Q: What sequence folds into this?
């Protein structure tokens, strides 16, 4: 386990961006991560970090979903704790 990593109580679930669904929607909409980053006023690295499981805000999730013209729930995934 990583040093200083926050402990998640057993049985708890985490919510993350669904990287595969976002990539799929990007392809369907013919958009790039760079394009949505520019629309959000963020760097593409920040978007990639959020897609890789980094912290993000609900506002960012909502904005990404709006740019992709999808329901925000479709780009989220629930990860059960181990």
A:
């Amino acid at each position: 386990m990583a040093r200083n990593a926050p402990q998640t109580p057993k049985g708890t679930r985490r919510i993350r961006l669904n990287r595969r669904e976002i990539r799929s929607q990007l392809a369907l909409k013919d958009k790039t991560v760079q394009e949505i980053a520019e629309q959000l006023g963020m760097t593409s690295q920040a978007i990639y970090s959020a897609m890789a499981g980094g912290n993000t805000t609900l506002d960012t999730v909502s904005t990404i979903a709006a740019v992709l013209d999808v329901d925000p729930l479709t780009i989220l995934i629930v990860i059960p704790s181990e």
